[in-house]
Amino acid sequence: MKNHLLLLLLAAGACIFLMSSCASLTGFEEGRTLGEGNSELTISGNFTRVPDIFDDEDSGGLDTLDNSISFPNLEFTYKRGITDKLNIGGRVSTNLNASSFVKYQLVGDKASSFSLSPGLEAGTVLGLAYNFGLPIYATFYPTEAVAINITPRVMYQFVTGLESEGVTYLGGNFGLLFGKKNKFGLDIGYYNLGSNSTGSQTLVTVGIGGKFRFGDFTASSEAGNDRGGSKRKRGRGRR
Question: DSSP labels for 222-234?
Fold first, then answer.
């Protein structure tokens, strides 16, 4: 009985690592940063279809569609504004991924209709697999209550102790968010996975989530409106 239980535990552990071996590629990040002292918690439910990216050559590697698996997961992301332009954060998910990230806003402010922030992220799966990514977070704001996110990303991942080379992810996420302070929406990610010695395969992720913010998010937009109003008033005075 003990031997059977041990085998079951080992099989469960192998299945968890197989599903967890893909990097976290969820979206929901905006081009705007939070502002100094503000923070944000994002909770999302995601469904991912991914190939067995570290399969051996005898079973077809990335070229074999039958090796793909699909699984759901929950992800929790927390970030905080260190300065008005700089955010740092971390995320954990139920498929045993943990990662940290940083982003810096280069284009736009808290009231502009377009914003862009390059980022840097690093993550691991139980210390067995590691990944490093370079995302670019871009967001269009048709109104203050609607955000259209586009996030191109390149990421490299490897598993420790394996002779196979690492895998490069190339693709991006597209998402919509609704709300002014707290926001809800959906996200879709599409990535090509490949390496120099194997074929390529695609990863697709779909998720829904909510973002809950803590702090003062009105001052900057009101300041933007005041600046615009002041300019209009001065213009009318000159005329």
Answer: HHHHHHHHHHHHH
- In 3D, which of 207, 132, 117 has the Cα closest to residue 167? 132
Q: Which residues of the chain have pLDDT under 70?
A: 1-23, 52-67, 162-164, 196-199, 218-239
Query: What pLDDT, in 10s, does the model give residues 6-19?
Result: 333 333 344 444 44
Residue 207 bridge partners (DSSP): 46, 187
Q: What is the DSSP letter of 24?
A: P
- pLDDT tens digits, 62-86: 444 446 788 899 999 999 999 999 9
Print burial letters for 95-108: b (CB count within 10 Å at least 16), e (below 16).
bbbebebbbebeeb
Is the Cα torsion angle 173, 177, 183, 185 positive or negative in sign? negative
- Tokens 């994002």 identify what position? 42
CB atoms within 10 A of CB 72: 12
